[in-house]
Automatic annotation (TrEMBL):
Highest taxon of the lineage: Bacteria
SUPFAM superfamilies: Glyoxalase/Bleomycin resistance protein/Dihydroxybiphenyl dioxygenase
Protein name in UniProt: VOC family protein
Limits of the VOC domain: 7-138
Length: 139
């Protein structure tokens, strides 16, 4: 069996406030804004780390899929409010510096930098929409 040439191009995270999402991902995390599309008062914002043009996060309005029922929309919004709907794992060479910057940007801290029993050092924060972001230290 041959190896396929597949990469992760984009991940999707919901946002409920375009300005807050931009302030967090662009201004605090330092991601580039690659696209910002507005349609009908809703915003789709594509961001990504500088120097990694092939990897992006698409911040999208929650529950805009036309196949989602009203009950499902309510559930998604409730889960976002609790911070249990979506998450992402990021990595950095400077966990302490990154944590300090994120914490200074008023992100909700879930866990300060700590050694985990499974062999990584990481921290956890929530973005303005409640998405859980774990940030792992590269060693």
């Amino acid at each position: 069996m041959s190896v396929m040439d597949i990469t992760i191009h984009a991940s999707f995270l919901p946002h409920d406030d375009a300005d807050a999402a931009l302030a967090f991902y662009r201004d605090i995390l330092g991601f580039e804004v690659r696209k910002h599309v507005e349609y009908g008062g809703m915003h789709w914002i594509t961001v990504g780390p500088p120097g990694q043009p092939g990897t992006s996060i698409v911040l999208h309005p929650p529950a805009v899929d036309p196949g989602i029922t009203e009950d499902e929309r309510r559930t998604i919004v409730e889960m976002m409010a609790k911070g249990t709907y979506a998450g992402l794992l990021l990595a950095t060479k400077d966990l302490d510096g990154t944590f300090e910057r994120v914490q200074g940007g008023n992100a909700e801290v879930v866990q300060e930098p700590a050694e985990q029993p499974y062999g990584v050092r990481d921290c956890a924060v929530r973005d303005p929409a409640g998405n859980l972001l774990r940030i792992q230290e590269l060693r």
